[in-house]
Write a structure and sequence with these properties.
The complex is a heterodimer of chains A (536) and B (345). By secondary structure, chain A is an all-alpha fold. Helix content of chain A is 78%, strand content 1%. Chain A has a two-stranded parallel ribbon. In chain A, α14 runs antiparallel to α15, α14 (318-352) packs across α20 and α17 runs antiparallel to α20. The relative contact order of chain A is 0.13. The chains are: A mainly alpha (536), B alpha+beta (345).
């Protein structure tokens, strides 16, 4: 055996990382493509609206989630009020409802004769018109109430960690709690708050379902239309690169800000914090403030989906539903297994030799910042090229035409999921592997175990928690995924998310409810695990 | 039991990116020998173990176990080098019982249980087979780690500061037990330590490392009586250290004259062990104690005196019982055989 073979796991890690990096690199090549007439047409007609709409969505979603997330996090982190221990974890539940499901529900409830329109009319004793939800305001509303938990979770954690000494110092300096909030808690929690807002911005930019349903022209929708309606991959690629650069800019700004504010993560001075009790009226006010996002973001849409499902259950074609269920679950299961295998091999390779494998793994983990539609385009381009190559070869030498073999296959779809979701499974695996001391690897080595054997006997067993969590997170994200699936799905394949979206686009919201409810119920599983962590 | 082999390291060199390195390192360890590599942090002692184990690769040199080259013209990976190793953080697999930890490298054949039972007996841990690492003490954990390391009957044992995590009052008992087991199993052992006391008590031979090179070597007694380097003289046992300039081959110390080989006027570091100072009423070779102050340190006392020649205060260490006798007569006898003299380059 040579020293080269000794590093075989590190080289495997590099190869696996490169497989994921290639589609990302291909998107960047569109920077140098001048584009054709279709691109010029898009540029002169809709590009400005894509930019304006996406920016408005970004800014207002960020502001809204920041206000709701920070307020609720501050209240649960600092005060004791009625039902706080339930509210604390109920606040994360909107993460179980896909944003597009929220759009379907509220567009119906606020329509003519919709439940909320009628309720408001009854309350003010005066008939009110339908609220036009098919607008950018509707989309902002949806993003705020479905994505605020990202800010809430990070802000709550930051407030809990920082509290203790800093707040006591501020109190003895004569500051009241409101001043402490602005002058101490918010500046100290800034990196966490920015981190949460960045997640919201990335999810907003990556969205396809909400924009498509509410008829808003955004980048992701533009990418989908460029490929599907215009059949122009160059335009899709060029739109993707603009989106990718925007996201890179946001991440860079966040990194600069985070780098300067890193001191605020210092927990050495933190200690057990004594919660402040609120009197009866303030306590109820805090309860109401924290309940509103739960009611709007989870209870109303969840209850509506249940009611719709009950109403439409008689229309359900059980065979079709079972098929949808099987295809969605098989896709999600396959994708999550592939992602977790890649993640385990890549992270383990980095562990065996971080100098060789580390840099590639870091680039591969950037994938989560790439919207599904962009990942789809990145995968589509090399596969179309490969398909054409194979087809031309067979046509020339064997007079056989097989058409596009890989494009529009499960392979292409799973590849796109891998590019998009590998980072999630990598983070999960890495956080569990990092807890295994390196001395255990060394012991196993001197005891005669090969790297493969160490992975099976030590890491796979000790890191089982992280591996399972990574599997579950990717499973759920694939289950909810829309744009990449719509662009790359094989002919005739549908998923619960796609079917729900198709029903919704046909205004058959009742029929959309059952597949959506299936997704929500599955998504609740990891959230209950997370909630248990919060309760403890 | 298979015949234990010797370890031979020839001209081994290694360099880290931060510039720290091991230069032309040579070492031979014979069967049944416990060698301790002693040195401060960053001296390269742990790196040496990592190179022998194969966790790092040198850029030059040869490592040979018995007649097999494991690094050099051939390359044998860690898992095939037949090495046992103990670590400071003990590193028992937390998801495995004591029995499964010990049996980690053993194939589960008919001899599996009997081998583990023998090893448990060897480390005096019968009845611990089904316990987990979190339910046994640090000393017991280290003995489990030893049994695990011995399970494959390794050709060489490497100990990377293995007693550092143990309580100071039980450390030496556990360490002596472990060394006894290793001696009985005739396993050549290299132990790394930064604790001179540990090295003196446990090792047959001590190698002192500084900046990646061997600066001194010998049995604990040889190193104590005949240190070849000022660093090792000060490391092994208590000393008092001074710098003097020679004049015509003589060093005029406050305690007496010491002759040196060279007639040139150069600076010397003089390192004196407490044994150099004894009490004598009769001898005329005594020097006068102009005591300014003293500090009782247990078996030793640190005394501050005024040196009329240099007109400076100087401190030195001597045994407390000697000081007690000398305090009234204010005279001490100086035996220069206990002074190590090193020219300063």
């Amino acid at each position: 055996m040579t020293i080269f073979l000794k590093n075989s796991w590190a080289y495997l890690s590099v190869i696996l990382s490169l497989i994921v990096i290639i589609p990302i690199l291909i998107i960047f090549l569109f920077l140098f493509n001048t584009g054709d007439d279709t691109w010029l047409h898009l540029k002169n007609t809709v590009l400005t609206s894509y930019i304006v709409n996406s920016l408005i969505l970004l800014i207002f979603s960020a502001l809204g989630t920041l206000i709701i997330g920070v307020t609720s996090a501050w209240l649960v982190a600092m005060y004791i009020f009625p039902f706080k221990k339930y509210i604390e974890w109920l606040l994360v539940l909107p993460l179980a409802i896909p944003s597009y499901a929220l759009a379907y529900v509220y567009s119906d409830l606020l329509n003519y004769g919709g439940f909320l329109t009628l309720t408001f009319s009854y309350i003010i004793n005066n008939e009110i018109n339908a609220i036009n939800f098919y607008s950018i305001y509707g989309a902002i509303f949806v993003f705020i109430f479905s994505l605020y938990p990202y800010v809430y979770l990070l802000a709550r954690q930051a407030f809990i960690v920082q509290s203790g000494t800093y707040i006591e110092v501020a109190k003895v300096s004569g500051l009241n709690l409101l001043s402490i909030f602005y002058k101490v808690a918010i500046p100290l929690a800034r990196p966490a708050l920015i981190g949460g807002v960045i997640l919201v911005m990335m999810e907003t930019l990556a969205d396809f379902g909400v924009a498509d349903y509410l008829g808003i022209e955004t980048f992701t929708k533009g990418i989908y239309k460029a490929w599907f309606n215009l059949g122009d991959i160059v335009s899709a690629g060029k739109l993707s690169i603009i989106l990718l650069i925007t996201i890179s800019l946001i991440i860079s700004v966040e990194k600069i800000l985070r780098g300067k504010a890193e001191f605020s993560n210092d927990t050495r001075s933190s200690r057990n914090f004594k919660f402040f009790s609120l009197n009866k009226y303030f306590g109820i006010t805090a309860l109401i403030i924290c309940s509103i996002p739960v009611i709007i973001g989870f209870l109303i849409p969840f209850a509506t989906l249940i009611i719709w499902s009950i109403q439409s259950v008689k229309n359900v074609n059980l065979d079709i539903f079972i098929n949808l269920f099987i295809s969605s679950f098989s896709l999600a299961l396959l994708a999550s297994c592939i992602c977790i295998l890649f993640a385990v091999f890549i992270i383990y390779g980095v562990r065996t030799n971080s100098a060789i494998a580390g840099p590639f793994a870091r680039i591969a983990s950037l994938g989560y910042s790439i919207p599904g539609a962009v990942a789809a385009v990145g995968v589509l381009i090399p596969l179309v090229w490969l398909d054409n190559l194979i087809n031309n070869f067979l046509l020339q030498y064997f007079d056989i035409s097989i058409g596009l073999l890989l494009t529009g296959s499960w392979f292409a779809l799973l590849f796109a999921y891998l590019v998009r979701f590998l980072a999630l499974s990598m983070h999960s695996v890495e956080s569990s592997f990092i807890k295994i001391p390196m001395s255990l690897d060394y012991v196993a080595k001197v005891l005669g175990s090969s790297n493969r054997s160490i992975l099976i006997k030590v890491h796979a067993r000790m890191g089982l928690g992280g591996i399972s969590l990574g599997l579950l997170i990717v499973f759920i994200d694939v289950l909810k995924e829309l744009p990449a699936t719509m662009i790359l799905r094989p002919f005739g394949l549908s998923t619960l998310a796609i079917k729900a979206h198709e029903f919704a686009m046909d205004e058959r919201l009742g029929d959309a409810a059952i597949p959506l409810l299936a997704i929500v119920v599955v998504c609740l599983i990891p959230l209950f695990i997370l909630a248990r962590g919060i309760r403890q | 039991m298979k015949m234990k082999k010797n370890l031979k390291i020839t001209d081994l060199s290694h360099q880290y990116k931060n510039g720290k390195s091991i230069k032309n390192f040579n070492l031979e360890v014979t069967s049944n020998e416990i060698v301790c590599i002693l040195g401060p942090s960053g001296s390269g002692k742990t790196t040496l173990l990592r190179l022998i184990a194969g966790f790092e690769d040198p850029f030059a040199g040869e490592i040979k176990v018995g007649n097999n080259i494991v690094f050099g013209s051939k390359y044998i990976p860690t898992e095939k080098r037949s090495i046992g190793m103990l670590f400071q953080d003990i590193a028992l697999f937390p998801h495995l019982s004591v029995k499964n930890n010990i049996g980690f490298s053993l194939s589960k054949n008919s001899k599996y249980n009997s081998t583990i039972n023998k090893l448990l007996k060897k480390v005096s841990l019968e009845g611990f087979a089904d316990r987990f690492s979190n339910s046994i003490s640090g000393g017991e954990q280290q003995r489990v780690a030893l049994a695990r390391a011995l399970a494959n009957n390794p050709d060489i044992m490497l100990l990377d500061e293995p007693f550092g995590s143990l309580d100071s009052w039980s450390k030496f008992d556990i360490a002596l037990d472990i060394i006894k087991i290793l001696k009985n199993s005739k396993t050549p052992t290299i132990m790394v330590s930064h604790d001179p006391q540990e090295a003196m008590r446990l090792a047959d031979r001590i190698i002192v490392m500084l900046d990646g090179s061997i600066i001194d070597e010998g049995s604990p007694k040889e190193l104590y009586y005949n240190s070849k380097h000022p660093f090792s003289a000060k490391l092994i046992g208590p000393t008092s250290s001074y710098i003097f300039m020679s004049k015509s081959g003589i060093l005029n110390t406050p305690f007496g004259k010491i002759s040196v080989n060279s007639n040139k006027s150069i600076k010397y570091e003089v390192i004196i062990r407490p044994e150099a100072f004894t009490f004598s009423r009769s001898s005329n070779k005594t020097f006068i104690l102009n005591i300014i102050s003293h500090k009782y340190l247990g078996i030793l006392t640190e005394v501050k005196i005024f040196d009329a020649n240099s007109k400076k205060n100087i401190k030195f260490l001597l045994f407390s019982n000697i000081f007690k006798k000398a305090i009234s007569s204010k005279k001490l006898l100086f035996n220069k055989d206990w002074a190590f003299v090193f020219p300063i380059k």
